[in-house]
Every structure is written in structure tokens, then in C-alpha cells.
Design brief:
The chain is α+β, with helices and mostly antiparallel strands and 229 residues long. Helix content is 25%, strand content 28%. It has a six-stranded mixed beta sheet. Helix 1 crosses helix 2. It is elongated, with a radius of gyration of 19 Å.
Length: 229
């Protein structure tokens, strides 16, 4: 469980790997070991370092293009990458993607929930859907993880929704469940501070309701927390 106060402040860490080329040889060697479950922690971390460099480039490209094929900078020159996102619902409504460890809370977060594994945790904002009353107006952020799968003709970056109980890969993947939640708190906390809503309920009632923090997955059991004054 992540503890958040009503005053979450974020600090920017920048993206130091944005200009770094991806070492495809390192990816290929370490991915083979990860896939066969023989990789050491150091080899998983070495693989993740290259995936993070690719993800940093991908995040920047996603802001200007939704093409499923992209060209990324590697040690072998510009290389074609195919983006797969089969497990992600409503991918067409994602307007922003960020590397999770660039979203850091300066204050307001008591603990973090992360999982060690292959790949680099990301977070993505799903936009509001007028046909779904459970999606807040400012959308919501979901946890994703990017993994790289080497290929002869084209490299693949697979995006996995780690809030979904089913995983597309046969090895443990990294995950960060805190970053999307604290980003949600930072986006929505101005609404929480409206004391007028507390004392003038009738006036604000039409804008209140239950909202999602992640996408709905039919394999999971919905849990709703209701609190009083």
C-alpha cells in the first residue's frame, strides 16, 4: 500500500539517457539469459540500462508520432524498432508517456512499491472518455513496463500493462506502481483541497463520484474505498 498525503509535490530528475545510443549487442546477450532464466542480477540491470536508453528516446518520439514503427539511435546506427502494445487497453487514448524513475515525489509519499525484473517501468496517461463516467476529466495514469526483444530484421519494444493480472512474457518484469499514483495525486489534489465542497455539498455534488485510478480488468476484483468526514 502506498501512503500519500493531500500535499504531493514532485521534483524533476530530467532524462540523462536521452542522447545515449542503445548497445544492441548487450541487449541481445543479456536478453537471451533473461529469457532462459539464467541471468544474474547484474546482467538484468545491464539489460535494463539499455532498455532505459531506448525508452527515453521512445518517450520523446511518442509525443510527436504514434507510428508503431520508430527509428532509434543505437551503436549500430539508426535502427528500426517495432512497438507492440497488445496488452494495453485504450492505447489510442494515451497522450503522455514518462519513464517512471523521472517522476519523484519531493514530499507527500510515505513509501514506494516497486518490483525487480527485466525492463524499465513507465507511466502513461489515459485521456478522459465521455462515454465512461468512471474516468476523471484529467484522465488517469497507468503503470507500464518496456522490454526489448532483439530480432534480425527489426528490434521490438514491447509495452506491458503491469496493472493487468496477465503478463505476455515468461520472465519476471520490473514494475513501479507508485509513480502513476503520485502523478495522479499531483494532478488531482487541487480538487481535494476545495473546502467549499465539504461545507456546500449540494452545490458540488454533481461533480463528485467514484473515479478509476487504473483501467478496468475483468480478471480482477474491484475494490472501492469509501471514507467519511
Amino acid at each position: 500500500m502506498v501512503g500519500c498525503s493531500s500535499n504531493v509535490r514532485l521534483t524533476s530528475t530530467g532524462n540523462p539517457l536521452l542522447t545515449r545510443a542503445v548497445d544492441l549487442q548487450s541487449v541481445s546477450v543479456n536478453y537471451g539469459k533473461i529469457k532462459s532464466n539464467t541471468a544474474s542480477c547484474a546482467e538484468v540491470e545491464a539489460y535494463n540500462e539499455e532498455v532505459r536508453a531506448a525508452a527515453a528516446q521512445l518517450v520523446k518520439l511518442h509525443s510527436t508520432s504514434r507510428n508503431p514503427e520508430q527509428v532509434l539511435r543505437t551503436n549500430d546506427g539508426d535502427t528500426r524498432f517495432r512497438i507492440k502494445h497488445n496488452s494495453i487497453k485504450n492505447f489510442d487514448r494515451i497522450d503522455s508517456i514518462a519513464v517512471a524513475d523521472t517522476v519523484v515525489a519531493k514530499a507527500g509519499v510515505e513509501e514506494t512499491v516497486e518490483c525487480f525484473g527485466a525492463g524499465v517501468p513507465l507511466l502513461a496517461r489515459v485521456l478522459h472518455d465521455k462515454n465512461d463516467a468512471l474516468v476523471p476529466e484529467q484522465g488517469f495514469w497507468i503503470p507500464l513496463t518496456a522490454v526489448m526483444e532483439p530480432g534480425r530484421q527489426c528490434q521490438t519494444i514491447r509495452l506491458i500493462d503491469t496493472s493487468c493480472p496477465r503478463c505476455e512474457v515468461p520472465y519476471p518484469v520490473a514494475a513501479n506502481y507508485t509513480a502513476p499514483l503520485i502523478r495522479d495525486f499531483a494532478d488531482r489534489q487541487q480538487e481535494y483541497r476545495r473546502a467549499g465542497a465539504l461545507f456546500n455539498f449540494d452545490k458540488f455534488a454533481p461533480s463528485m463520484g467514484i473515479k478509476r485510478v487504473f483501467d478496468f480488468h475483468p480478471q480482477k476484483t474491484p475494490v472501492i474505498f469509501v471514507h467519511g468526514i
